[in-house]
Amino acid sequence: MIFGTPISWFLNEIIASILLLICIAHIVKQENSTIKLFELFAYMITAGIFENIGVFSNAYYYSHQRLMMFGNVPFSILFIEGAILYTTFQLFSLLKAPKWIIPFGAGLLASIQDMTLDPSSIYDLNLVNGVLEGQWNWTKFYDGGYVDIPFYNFSGWFTMIFFFSVCMLTGRFLYEKYKKRWIGITYPFASIIVTVTLLISPINQFLLYTVPFAEINTKTNELIMLLLLYTISALLIFRFVKYDSYIVKKDRIVFAIPIFLHIYAIITCITLGITYAILPVVIVAALHSAYLIFVYLKTKNAER
Predict the structure, then answer these.
(1) What letter would DSSP give residue 70?
(2) Most buried of 53, 157, 173, 234, CB within 10 angstroms?
(3) Is the pTM of this model over 0.90?
């Protein structure tokens, strides 16, 4: 234990803080850096609110044996989620993809990233006050899913990133069109309200569970919707994203951070003996990393 926190959990908090600081350092060197920082912080607030709703609804819970908590959610979770939003959104922005493609691309890659992070967190078990707990703990509604995690967890990640990305793009459009400083300062925080509203709306209930055509926590319907979201996004990326933009060295954190997180998840699974999760984590990490390496090589050879 370090300051009452299990060592692996403490390490996770340190790494999450470093990754967030790297993203912040990258943002401050850009034009309109203050507004982009507001976007990042607004997303983490959005994620924090929605994660707390998940805890309140008894879908899952986080151990409170942490140094920093946002209500019932560790700050480290929000820091990593912020880093993932930033790198996925930034990647498709740098590729000069059609703006309407960005929410699909960011949602897809962020959700896939979660497929290695979550298993390595759930099965990182420690004895806390006489109870065996993971970094976060799922309240099962059915057996199976992805490494015993309900499928809607990953489609939920997709829709949260998707909705917030749409809000960001809309806010940026309005700011660029009207050149009003108050718009730039306001829209990131308005995005919190809009995104959370959409996440608890019937729209999201349908995208996650096919409600009203099926009940919540119906495994087959959750899997169908997850595969549908993934398939549509992958086809759009394949059809519309070009790789003829050169990405300069300072922007290559969009490759480095996601690949690092996959490697970290694999090392965690192996080191802690989480054998149940190793194979799916390695497969997902390999597929996602292969795509990122493909994009890196294509953009590295693009004309400057």
Answers:
(1) E
(2) 157
(3) yes
